[in-house]
Amino acid sequence: MDRVLKHRLEHRFESLLAGPVHQRHDETELRVGPGAVPEVMAALHDEPEFRFEMLVDLAGVDTGEVMQVVYHLWSETTTDWLRVIADGLSRDDPRVPSVTFLWKGAEWMEREAYDMFGITFEGNRDLRRIFMPPDYTSFPLRKDFYLPDDAARSPGAGVRHMERTHAPADAPAAVRLRKARGA
Amino acid sequence: MSFATRTWDRLTLPGRILAVLVPALVGLLVVLVVLVALLGGPIVDFLAANIGLVRFVVAATGVLVLSIPTAFIIIYMEMKVIARMNQRVGPQRVGPWGSLMSVFHGLKVLMKEDFTPTGADPIVFTWAPVVTFMGSVMTMAVIPFAPGLFGQDFNVGLLYLFSMGGLTVVGLLMGGWASFNKYSLLGGLRSAAQIISYEIPLTLSVVGLIILAGSMSLDRLVLMQSGSVLDWNVFRQPLGALIFFIAATAEANRTPFDLTEADSEIVAGFATEYSGMRFGFFFFAEYVNVFIVSALIVTFFFGGWTAPVGWPFPVSLHLDPGSLGIGLLFLVLLAPVVGTLVLGAPFWLWRSSISTLQALAIGFVLFNALVVLALLGWAFVSFDWVVGLVWFFAKTYVFVFTFVWMRATLPRVRIDQLMGFAWKWLLPAALLNLFVTAAAVVALGR
Amino acid sequence: MTTEQRISQDDPRVTLDEQAGVFEPVPPYPPRTEREAEFYTAGDGELFLNMGPQHPSTHGVLRLVLKLNGEQIVDIDPVLGYLHRGVEKICENSDWHHINNQVDPLEYLASLFNEWPPVLAFEKLFDVQVPRRAEYIRVLTGELLRVASHTLFMGWLALDLGGLTPILYAFIERDEIVEALAAVTGARMLFNYFRIGGVNGDVNHEFLSRVGDWMSRASGQVEANGRLLNENEIFIRRTRGMGVVDREMAMRMSVSGPNLRAAGVPFDLRRAHPYSVYPELDFDIPTRQGGDSLARYLIRIDEIKQSLRIIDQCLHELPDGPVMAKLPRLLRARPGRAWGAVEGPRGIVGTYAISDGTDQPFRLRIHDPSFLHLQLLPFLMPGRLVADTMAVMASFDPVMGGVDK
User: Fold this and answer.
1) Which residues contact B38 (CB under 8 A, 6 or more apart)?
2) CA of C365: which chain A residue's CA is closest?
3) What are the tens digits of pLDDT across the range B275-316?
4) Could you tell me whether strands C15-16 and C347-355 are parallel, antiparallel, or unpaired per DSSP bridges?
């Protein structure tokens, strides 16, 4: 655990943080609102005391109540992994600014997050489906994705008669939604 | 039920086939003999008057028939040699050491569906393999296999050779264009670009030879090199030989110049949409091409059918079987029996698990092998053309092996590197070679 | 016959629609993004060539749409998803212990490196201390598999450039390694060997003797395999200067692993962010300066040598003790989040796990490096020839199982 990093982060991003900075094992965790992502990421990437030059991973998360986008960064200035969580995206229309202006390589990872969660990354020039077929209509990793139902709704799913007939037509969404306590 | 019906029912399938075939053949023979007896004079007169026609028909048949086993042998050789170089075993199940594998490949290809894709131009698509195959087979007609053993000796043999070699590319281009497939199209265009580019250094590298020999006849070129190893053209025209070898590799679409069917880039090039025997024709043409190219290298630069060294022991067997009289009959009857017994006895003594019958069988096979060897040896020392044939095929298969070896060793070049090499290096080198040869001939006044 | 009805040549009973069997790579719907519109608009004399998902050298089921001008590539659009199995979704419905089994077939050439990151992340979640012997065994088996994967890469690259032989020599070495691993894990490809808190079963005599036997000639064999191509003029001309990824670009594109080190960046998680027992082991991080296909090929040979050093040390310093930590049979993590990442043969393999206190992860994100490396193709290929697609793509060593998840 890098205590110094925690203090530096708290000091630098005081007003932008959406929650306290967490540290556990070799991970430091930063929680910001979606609007603050470009500013925080640019600062982390450029400022000499941070120099988080490498975006290791970008992941979408559906907590059941809100959407998150999770970035994992690496820097040679610290021994910790830095995790930046852009928290509090609305589930109805999740939007977050893209980080492709810093890391061109985030483009496909953002496409994947869009494909799986429907998160719109504003500023990504190529935000289309990457794994699922282009005519697919739902987002498979969302917590309210009910496999037979949602797969059958897709136009490409004409052959899946069995799934369609076995899907409970009126199962309440609340029953199917598993909510996170930890995310 | 008559006797004939009962006999027919008892016969097995091979027996029935024989029962039909043997009388038919005998009948045909009788008819032929009668015809020749009746019309013999006019036919012989006609053939004697048109000896060129006879020669052409025989040569064409011979070349067509020869091309098929040649392709089979080279395909088998490629499978086996590359396998050994890859630390694999290669074919081993069909026939002794897997030697019938390529024959069965041919049969498999014959039995497969001949598929024409939607959108393809059916006529061009169908004729493309035929054109390619004919282009490569017709080239064989002028190759001198042995003294006096060639299809036709033109005085413009070389020109015929290169024009027929150029016919191959027409077939490839037709196939690539008519297949309605972008990979095929790329393959066809690549082959056109490649073969036309390499045709130029290929032809120019031989012009030096034409100047030296003063003739374009292949037979004259070979005769010019008769004598010892030092008379070979490769020592007179080393640069020409090198250029010819490289350009010929490209002409035959062999690695590292096998861009037309680069499987890791354009799937199978011009042959992507072909299946069945149409694909088989392309495949055959490719391997016949390998043989032809090797044969040409040998003919032009490595002495053709001439022996590299004079036979050091002048052996001349003047066997006159007639002088043995009645003894000949005893010899013919006794020799197999004695030979079988003598050769089988060691096996019979060697292992008790080998039964008497097996030992006799081994002895009989061995005896026959020995007799065949002896006959071959006799033919070798007695007939010029046998010696020539042996040397010609030995030299040719050395080069076939080299092509196979290259395929196992080298990666593939890129199309721009290929074209750059032809135009920037091979063509100037060929021109230089031509210039130096011409200058030398003028200067030395030959 | 009323209008132009075409009859199939092969079966006269079949009437052919004029458009049947004609495949155009251009999608039938209007473009949805800027990039898609730009790509699928053909300029003068340009054609689209569809390469894959069934193609001899797209390393599985990658599909590339090439925009060509003659043989020259104008642009390239990789299309993924032909091997997408939704492993992340499956993992959300699996027990903590079952995750290993689910992630194994992702990057099938080095599947231990798929198991390692989840195991690493879960150990953080459960606060499990792994016995030292287990850590050594993990490093030992992992490095063996890294050698196998890199050896195979040397063969694949040659095969994509048209060389037939090196791939078979590569498979000989790989076979020795997977046979040795099969002796201890029971499988040749999908090992399912690592466990939360250790490994499944101690190394046995057969494994050690096989590895020792192989190690006695491994470096010579690798040298010999390298000699098949390293100085081949055609090979060098095909790969030198091809697909140059410089340092700047590599960092911006999140390139990792050997592909990053070939660009001159000495970044290796085994040193940059040490895990397991790597701090105790003695090895170097080789780098190359070219950043081209040739450098990416040579760096892997260098890495094989370093891996052999690590294997040697592991064999000599393998400590005694248990190989499994004491754990409750039914794992229930307390709510929390953890990230585990290891240096796989292709780059950083990572796992982000969220626990909500039940016996299944709430969300499991799997990060695979090949996915990011394929992203480089549209930036590297314009202006090159069709044949170079293979030279560049194969030099990134992508495995589609990992890319498509």
Assistant:
1) none
2) A59
3) 888 888 888 888 888 999 999 999 888 888 887 776 666 666
4) unpaired
**pLDDT score for B445:** 74
Q: For B155-167, write each residue's pLDDT tens digit.
A: 777 888 888 888 8
Query: What b/e string do you get for C39-48 counting C-beta neighbours within 10 Å, with b at 16 or more?
Result: bbeeeeeeeb
In tens, the pLDDT along C388-397 reads 888 898 899 8
Q: Given strand C336-344, what is the order of strands in its sheet?
A: C336-344, C347-355, C361-367
Contact B285, B135 (CB under 8 A): yes
* Cβ proximity of A83 and C339 under 8 Å: yes
Per-residue tokens: C273: 């962010």
The answer to whether the beta carbons of residues A54 and C254 sit under 8 Å apart is yes
Asked if residue B256 has a cis previous peptide bond (ω within 30° of 0), the answer is yes
Q: B294-328 in b/e burial notation, b at 16+ Cβ within 10 A?
A: bbbbbbbbbbbbbeeeeeeeeeeeeeeeeeeeeee
Q: Which residues of C touch B (CB under 8 A)?
A: 8-10, 16, 20-22, 47, 49-50, 55-57, 71, 158-165, 168-169, 172, 229, 232, 234-235, 237-238, 385-390
Cα torsion at B107, B108, B112, B116 (round to 10°)?
A: -80
> Which residues fall within 8 angstroms of residue C135, CB to CB, at 6 or more apart?
C276, C277
Q: Do C56 and B256 make contact, defined as CB atoms within 8 angstroms?
A: no
For residue range C290-315, what is the model confidence (pLDDT) as tens digits?
Answer: 889 999 999 999 999 999 999 999 99
Signed CA dihedral, B305, B306, B312, B315: sign only: positive
Quick one: average pLDDT of B405-410? 90
SS3 percent helix, strand, coil of chain A, rounded to 5, is 30, 25, 45
Cβ within 8 Å of residue A105, ≥6 positions away:
A55, C252, C253, C254, C255, C372, C375
CA B396 – CA B408 distance, rounded (Å):
19
- 117-176 in chain C: CB under 8 A from chain A: 124
Find the CB nearest C362 among A74, A83, A183.
A183
Residues B79 and B241 sit within 8 Å (Cβ to Cβ): no
Q: What share of chain C is helix, strand, coil (3-state, %, to 5)?
A: 45, 15, 40
Vertex B19 angle, CA B14 and B23, to 5°: 140
pTM above 0.90, yes or no: no
Q: What is the 3-state secondary structure (H, E, C) of C87-136?
A: HHHHHHCCCHHHHHHHHCCCCHHHCHHHHHHHHHHHHHHHCCCCCHHHHH
Distance CA C343, CA C267 (A): 10
Residue of C nearest to A64 (CA): C362
CA B83 – CA B63 distance, rounded (Å): 30
Chains that touch B (3 or more CB pairs under 8 A): C
Q: Which helix (H) or strand (E) holds B58?
A: helix B51-85
Cα separation, B171 vs B126, whole angstroms:
10
Q: Which distant-in-sequence residues (6+ apart) come within 8 Å of A39 by Cβ?
A: A16
> Kindly report the CA angle at C51 between C106 and C292, in degrees rounded to 5?
70
Structure tokens that stand for B181 in this block: 């497939």
Q: Strand order of the sheet with strand A54-62? A: A22-24, A27-32, A81-89, A67-74, A54-62
Q: Do chains C and B have 3 or more beta-carbon pairs under 8 angstroms?
A: yes
Please provide the distance, in angstroms rounded to a whole number, between the alpha carbons at the two ends of chain B. 87
* Backbone phi and psi for residue B62, each to the nearest 5 degrees, phi listed first: -60, -40
C347-355 and C336-344 beta bridge pairing: antiparallel
Q: From C272, which residue of chain A is nearest by alpha-carbon distance?
A: A76
The DSSP annotation for B59-119 comes to HHHHHHHHHHHHHHHHHHHHHHHHHHHTT-----SSSGGGTTHHHHHHHHHHHS-----TT
Query: Of the candidates C180, C182, C204, which has an alpha carbon nearest to the alpha carbon of residue C191?
Result: C182
* SS3 assignment, position C394: helix
